[in-house]
Amino acid sequence: MRLSLCLKMKLSPSLLISLLPKRFIKTAPSPPTTPLPTRSNTTSSSPSSFTLQFLVNSCGLPLETALTASKKFHLNEKNIHKTQSLLHFLKSHHFVDTHIADLIKKMPAFLGCKVENNLKPKFEFLAANGVAGNLLPQLILSNPDILWTSLDSTIKPSFKFLKSFLGTNVRIAAALKRCSWLLRVNRNRTMQTNIDLLIKEGLPLDRLAKLIVSNPRSLLSKHDKIVYAVNSVKTLGLETNDTMFIYALGVKMKMTDTTWKKKIEVMKSLGWSEEEIFGTFKRCPQILQYSEKKIRITVDFFINTVDLGPEILLVYPSLFCLSVDKRIRPWYNVINVLKSKNLIKREKKFPSLLLMSEKKFLENYVDKYVDDVPGLWEVYTGTANTKKKGT
């Protein structure tokens, strides 16, 4: 009663938390059976003190977040064992406290989900089809509406549709990791229309599968947008059977014509011709996916610090994919220190050296000399924020 009175008096969260009873701090799970509520009948303008207590003490929500959630959904004290069972069920499927707290923030009404007739068969189907382990909570958190999505009329048909192109559950899980909305793909005629277009344009089925896995959102775009992007990429000289076509398509679809033109102008201002830019784009479409600022910073470092001409980035366009602060500069500093100590006798060209794996770089240029060169590890980690192996 005291807490209800305090809620009506609108006391501060810090005072409210001090009044919460301790009886909800520990909760024991029971066999799950909770009816699935509709979101329309679980909202209220005033918070429930019982719901508030449970959200704070049993679900770990901060008081202010719990206050907001308790206005949208009320728990029944007499049936609280059902909610406890729901939480136990989630934790048995790799949901940790932070997952549950985040899910409550996004959709408090999920605490009324029915386990036996809704979540259990749904989770079992997902797990049997590759969505298991930590991927399951990740998928649900990215799209909580899955909890209300019909298994038989939506999720299963969506898996069947995806499997017709991807073939394996591993690929389907990889695609879902990037776009959980694919679980409703059977209701999205746009994706089918876009796929039909790409097949008609001659995109091989194995490349289509790669596109669905690597960039599924592009296939959920408006049909006119993907038609325009396909034509634009083909105009640049990339055909649908080219390996880089799907990557170029993805880059083109992520920006407006205005942004595209600005990036071209930036690269031209740095010394490249349109022919060189588009020739490089055909080999490495990612060069135009980065911001104008990122492009300028990368070019500036190689010209003014490494003392190489801008043409080096046409030879090694994948260097644009690397962070100047986290990789290029620290590695450059390490090489300079080793050169100053005459420890490098046959030095590779720095740009090609940047493309080796970090493990190999550590073995060949850091761990190998760290005991002989004081401060070498600090030079390497100065901006990379990388911990030394074994520490």
TrEMBL record:
This is Uncharacterized protein. Keywords: Transcription, Transcription regulation, Transcription termination, Transit peptide. GO terms for molecular function: nucleic acid binding. Belongs to the mTERF family. InterPro entries: MTERF, MTERF_sf. Signal peptide: none annotated. The keyword Transcription applies. The lineage of its organism: Eukaryota, Viridiplantae, Streptophyta, Embryophyta, Tracheophyta. It comes from the Eukaryota. GO terms for biological process: DNA-templated transcription termination.
